[in-house]
Amino acid sequence: MQSSVKHGEEDIAANDLAELLFAATPAATVRNSYRLTTPLQNPSIAHSQVRMSEEAKPLTVGNNLNLEGKVAFLCGASSEKGFGWAIAKELADAGATVIFGTWPMGLKIFERNYKKKSMEDERRLSDGSLMEVAKVYPLDAVYDHQDQVPEDVKNNKRYKDLAGFTIQEVVDQVEKDYGQIDILVHALANGPEVTKPLLETSREGYLEASSASAYSLVSMVSRFGKIMKPGGSVVSISYIASRQVIPGYGGGMSSAKAQLESDTRTLAFEAGRKWGVRVNTICAGCMASRAATAIGGDGGKPFIMKAIDYQEANSPLTGKFVAEHVGKAALFLLSPMAGAVTGVTLPVDMGLHVMGLSLDSPAFA
Ligand SMILES: NC(=O)c1ccc[n+]([C@@H]2O[C@H](COP(=O)([O-])OP(=O)(O)OC[C@H]3O[C@@H](n4cnc5c(N)ncnc54)[C@H](O)[C@@H]3O)[C@@H](O)[C@H]2O)c1
Questions:
Q1: pLDDT > 50? residue 87
Q2: Over the stretch 39-57, which tens digit does the pLDDT of each residue have?
Q3: Which architecture, in CATH terms, is 64-279+326-340?
Q4: How confident is the model at residue 17 (pLDDT cuts 50, 70, 90)?
Q5: Distance 358 CA to ligand 1 centre (A)
Q6: Share of the chain above pLDDT 90, in %
Q7: Residues catalogued as catalytic
Q8: Per-domain residue ranges of the chain
Q9: In sequence order, what DSSP letters do the residues of 123-168 get, joined into one string?
Q10: How many Cβ atoms from other residues are within 10 Å of residue 259's Cβ?
Q11: Mean pLDDT over residues 157-180, rounded?
Q12: Whose CA is nearest to atom 20 of ligand 1?
């Protein structure tokens, strides 16, 4: 006798349910995606396109890590010390065309630095050539469209000569230049009150952290998603303060990272069904990037240097944690190698997240 489970208005026999979950033939998959579809989604076209592109090539490491012909848009990748830059290098090394969305506040510095001879080592790829950023778009990720930009920002010397720096304007320009993109990287965060404990954080500071560091991902996925190819992939960067208490990482930034991880799951569902796009986040270990160094400290050692010391003293893996570790993990998530991976928060932190006590605590000396 077959047992059955209730599924919407249908009763589905257990055998049918197994088929529904593990269906292998294209016919069964089309039928099942119809059964699983809600009014929110219409995945059958996107899913069949993804399947076709996957079927076109055998599943080998060489094919799946060859990103030639793919276009990757990266926001927050303009500092050679940061995670975004490391991801850009891995993508460029794999053959992708990389284009940047760069915060107007740092645009001039980036353009100046990028051309310097001293940057050549930072741009060097594994075959000795230099990473080329095909195009740089000014992008302030706290604005979706021009109506939201305050007058003082419009008139600011770093913004006033820029053609369009809101997320929608950049999406429109990228569409004009490239048609569609394959990869979207969100490697940015900002919280003006990051040094304040949550108890002392103002409403404005909290909401600014959330807007720049979390809603920016929602806005970017919803707007870029429309010009992403089926099978496309999004990666952002989170931090363990989303789930565990990290004194010194305040101002609502821990809240923003919790949002980022939660939104990753919901966006994975919605963007997966709508466009066949995957959405994942990497929960990165501590590294002295420009943004992290700017957090400062309480007069003594900067927060990030203490956090790195703690990480090195207490992680299961004792080697030096570098941006390249995140770059390589992101390459995996952004490539067809991770074709069935979506909605995950992947810790890339030398394993620190599994520890339940501090090895260097005086209590265990
Ligand atoms: N460094 C760490 O220890 C660490 C640890 C975990 C997670 N992260 C996360 O990694 C990501 C990248 O940061 P990073 O540490 O590599 O530093 P970074 O300085 O290389 O990158 C931060 C970027 O954010 C950009 N940015 C800030 N506000 C912006 C805005 N409104 N619009 C567009 N861009 C804006 C900056 O221009 C900069 O390029 C962030 O999400 C950060 O929270 C960092």
A1: yes
A2: 333 344 344 454 434 445 5
A3: 3-Layer(aba) Sandwich (3.40)
A4: very low
A5: 27
A6: 79
A7: 239, 249
A8: 64-279+326-340
A9: HB-TTSPBP-EEEEEE--TT-SSGGGS-HHHHTSTTTTT-S--SHH
A10: 20
A11: 97
A12: 82
